[in-house]
Amino acid sequence: MLKRVIPFAHHLIEQVVKPGDHVIDATCGNGHDTIMLSRAVGEAGKVYAFDIQAEAIANTKNRLVTESVSNVELIHDSHDQISQYVDQQITAAIFNLGYLPGSDKTVITKPGHTIGAIQQIIARLKQGGILVCVVYHGHPGGEEEKNALLDYFTEFDQQYFNVLRYGFINQKNNPPFVLAVEKKKTD
Ligand SMILES: C[S@@+](CC[C@H](N)C(=O)[O-])C[C@H]1O[C@@H](n2cnc3c(N)ncnc32)[C@H](O)[C@@H]1O
């Protein structure tokens, strides 16, 4: 069976992450990806979870409490400030782009911030590590972000990175797709 995009994104991360690792949720929103990452790194690991909206931080916090999770640092700031909070090596990161479901549809991820954050994560990504973006692009501003990311990732040197696009090409209404970057080697 072909996995839908979110299960596929989670599957990629779960293949790579080990207990004790440090990972990033760059857009925690309602906390679904944060919980997946928390389980993958276990009690000895750590998840840095970012969001610019107080509502998203509160929603994720509630989910963490319900699930009795204690290995997540919630950071109410833009993901392009990652360097201020994370200096460890990272095994995996996830971005779920677009707007917070059920909330203000005008607060969206923006290409400049997203690419700024990706640059900082790539610099901290371990050899064999993975960065995954779930790209939603049907909303106003989404097409611009999608194109900026495709342009940016297309330039990644294949000696150092594998870059994958995964999505369904026969779905209606701008279906989301996955962009994933695997760091093959560091030098
Ligand atoms: C599609 S939602 C994320 C859904 C989430 N991963 C989940 O599992 O529920 C996108 C989120 O990105 C957040 N966001 C937008 N710009 C951001 C930025 N510059 N830094 C961090 N988060 C941002 C929005 O507030 C929103 O909550």
Task: Kindly describe this structure.
With 187 residues, the protein is of the alpha/beta class. It has one domain: Rossmann fold. It has six helices and seven strands, in the order H-E-H-E-H-E-H-E-H-E-H-E-E. The chain has helices at residues 5-16, 32-41, 54-66, 82-85, 111-124, 142-154, and strands at residues 22-25, 46-51, 72-76, 90-96, 125-135, 161-167, 177-183. A seven-stranded mixed sheet has the order 3-2-1-4-5-7-6, sandwiched between helices. The longest helix is centred in the middle third of the chain and has 14 residues, at 111-124. The chain is globular. The N and C termini lie far apart (37 Å). The site of S-adenosylmethionine has 20 residues, from helix 2 and strand 2.
Low-confidence segments, given as residue ranges, are none
Question: How many angstroms does the end-to-end distance come to?
Answer: 37 Å
Order of helices and strands: HEHEHEHEHEHEE
Q: What structural class do you assign from the helix and strand content?
A: alpha/beta
Give the CATH H-level superfamily.
Answer: Vaccinia Virus protein VP39
Principal-axis shape equals globular
Strand order of the largest sheet: 3-2-1-4-5-7-6
CATH architecture: 3-Layer(aba) Sandwich
- What is the class in the CATH system? Alpha Beta
The profile of the biggest β sheet is: 7 strands, mixed
> Mean pLDDT across all residues, rounded?
97
